[in-house]
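Worked example

This section walks through a single chain of length 80. The input is the sequence exactly as stored; nothing has been trimmed or padded.
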Amino acid sequence: MGQPLITARQLVATTASTAFRTPQLLGDILFKELDEVPYCQSCRQDVAVKRQSEQMKFLMGILLLMVLVASIPIYFFLLA
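Given that input, the structure is written out below as tokens.
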């Protein structure tokens, strides 16, 4: 038994659709404990590698978003 594998795409899509449809459920989606799902013991290493790659994708996406948000005021400051 273990936590289900959630891809970065699934996380972003679910969060965005919930934010527009029912924003009061965002806390449940983001912070609620997930139900455990069964998976084979031999798949444990594969799931760990996939989980780590999904975490890196999500981290790189957040870092890119932060760089874009930070660069907009700098761009307008240098233009003025």
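What to look for: The longest helix spans residues 44-79.
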